[in-house]
Specification:
Elements: H1 3-13, E1 20-28, E2 31-41, E3 49-52, H2 59-72, E4 77-81, H3 97-106, E5 117-121, E6 128-129, H4 134-145, H5 150-165, H6 173-184, H7 188-195, H8 200-215, H9 218-221, E7 243-247, H10 255-272, E8 284-288, H11 292-297, H12 300-313, E9 318-324, H13 332-335, E10 340-343, H14 351-361, H15 372-375, E11 383-387, E12 399-403, H16 415-423, H17 426-431, H18 440-470, H19 474-504
Parallel strand pairs: 3-9, 3-10, 4-7, 4-8, 5-6, 5-7, 8-9
Antiparallel strand pairs: 1-2, 1-12, 10-11, 11-12
Length: 505
């Protein structure tokens, strides 16, 4: 087919009458066609998406372009940055010759621009500290994160119920461990009377799971001050949405903490955000880099929970985008929910690679212009296959796209620039204070101390009473003394009487 037929089909498939973002221009036979812009309607951005491709093919820059376009349209972004190479979006880019050449090909003028950024952290890194309390997770989610069986999950439910009934705050992991210990030791009778007997083998298994979570750094995450999701929805004075970057470079080897945080955050957003249905634009877009780290280590129950949230959260105006090397890294149940797919090049070095490429190609619409299986290995850096949903929710034709260049810096910030952002951040001042409120750990320790003191006092009282019973009273002592005196006098009189009689004789 001719170039005109190609342009006609692409323009018809990617036309937008409402608000939209522009990714770049379509490619045919290795050349960008300037009059075929790839437009994505804002109203379908909350249908979620996938950005995939081999290392070095341009995935990070694609996320940067998407985030910039969203921010520029007043839509906040949350970016989970595993590799630490996304912070440059806070600094203005620089137009270099290769950028000028690229934008001339795709027919889009280049503009250098910086975007408002908040740097966040789950650990001790500099940035806005993100925390959540154990209570906020609830027994079901907390059990799923720990990968507990039904019996152990029942014990967790009892622990939460006890704390609710007795108005005992359950804030951090030391609180949970304390209640767990109390249920089978000092408070065993109290629990058995009100909630039934709790097996020590179950609590031992749960404790080991909690310790495993602690070893991945979750003791830093659980606690106060809980992060308010409203602080992810901020717009700056120029109408740009904030790009919230969670720096996760130090937890790459802690997938359980990563998946714990991600799932809790999505659940919190889902619970707190109102239903908006199919509105004209999303409220927030979440990018999850290195998504395979979640799915590789997740239990079946955790995967089911992720799939459920992804299905439901779009009605709250939230779009979730998974970034990984190969689409097969994402479970099919989740993959089926993703409306926008951006596939960068894959490399066929082995037989397994070729099988994976064939499977990947089958996930995309058939095309009259591309042999997908072949082209997917020939895409250059900053080029990708794109398929999306148009304004009516209908899948667009498959298009190879030459992506526009980021308007912001295509490199990371310096330590001085990072420090400057944090020093000027209102959220750092709000969330980085250390808070250790009285909670289950302190309350139960006091309760145990009081019970120990009462028991000791009772023992001392009983010992005193026993001692008193074993000692003679004052009357008894006097009585015995009088008896002794009388007895002695009688004895003496008897002796003297005998002696008198003897002398008389």
């Amino acid at each position: 087919m001719s170039n005109s037929n190609f342009s006609e089909q692409i323009n018809a498939g990617y036309s937008c009458s409402g608000e939209h973002i522009i990714l770049g221009a379509a490619i045919l036979n290795g050349e960008a066609i300037a009059d075929t812009q790839i437009k994505i309607p804002l109203k379908t951005i909350n249908r979620h998406g996938l950005i995939a491709g081999a290392t070095g093919t341009g995935k990070t820059k694609t996320i940067q372009v998407l985030s910039e376009q969203l921010s520029q349209n007043g839509i906040p972004v949350l970016m989970m940055d595993i590799k630490g190479d996304f912070s440059g979006i806070a600094a203005q880019g620089e137009e270099k010759p290769f950028i000028t050449e690229r934008h001339a090909k795709i027919g889009i003028p280049y503009q250098a621009k910086a975007f408002p950024v908040e740097l966040m952290t789950l650990s001790e890194q500099n940035g806005v500290r993100l925390r959540a309390t154990v209570s906020e997770f609830g027994p079901v989610l907390f059990s799923r994160i720990l990968d507990l069986n039904d019996t152990q999950g029942g014990v967790v439910a009892v622990i939460f119920k006890y704390c609710d009934d007795n108005k005992i705050p359950l804030l951090d992991l030391k609180d949970f461990k304390k209640v767990l210990q109390y249920a089978t030791e000092e408070g065993k009778d109290e629990f058995e009377q009100n909630y039934g007997r709790i097996s020590t083998s179950s609590t031992g298994s749960i404790l080991r799971k909690v310790i495993e979570l602690e070893q991945q750094g979750a003791d830093v995450f659980f606690g106060e001050l809980s992060f308010d999701i409203d602080d992810l929805m901020r717009i700056d004075e120029n109408g740009n949405g904030y790009v919230n970057i969670i720096r996760l470079t130090d937890i790459q080897d802690k997938p359980k903490l990563f998946s714990t945080f991600m799932l809790s955050l999505l659940a919190e957003i889902y619970q707190k955000m109102p239903e908006i249905g199919d509105s004209g634009r999303p409220e927030l877009v979440v990018f999850i880099d290195e998504a395979h780290l979640i799915f590789d280590q997740a239990s079946k129950t955790l995967l089911d929970q992720i799939e459920t949230i992804v299905k439901l959260i779009r009605s709250k105006g939230i779009g979730v985008y998974f970034i990984t090397q190969n689409p097969t890294d994402v479970p099919s149940g989740v993959l089926a929910q993703l409306g926008l797919k951006i596939q960068h090049a894959l490399r066929a070095f082995t037989a397994n690679d070729r099988k994976a490429i064939k499977m990947t190609a089958e996930n995309y619409p058939l095309s009259d212009f591309y042999k997908t299986e072949d082209v997917i290995t020939q895409l250059g850096i900053g080029e990708a296959f794109v398929t999306a949903l148009n304004e009516k929710g209908i899948p667009t034709p498959l298009a190879a796209c030459m992506m526009r260049a980021p308007m912001s810096r295509m490199d990371i910030l310096t330590e001085a620039e990072i420090a400057s952002i944090n020093n000027n951040s209102k959220l750092v001042k709000k969330y980085n204070q250390e808070i250790d409120s009285e909670s289950a750990y302190e309350i139960l320790n006091k309760k145990i101390e009081q019970a120990t003191a009462q028991a000791q006092e009772q023992e001392e009282t009983q010992a005193e009473e026993k001692r008193k019973k074993s000692e003679p009273s004052t009357a008894e002592v006097i009585g015995k003394s009088v008896t002794k005196v009388v007895t002695s006098a009688s004895f003496i009189r008897g002796v003297f009487g005998i002696l008198t009689k003897m002398f008389k004789k």
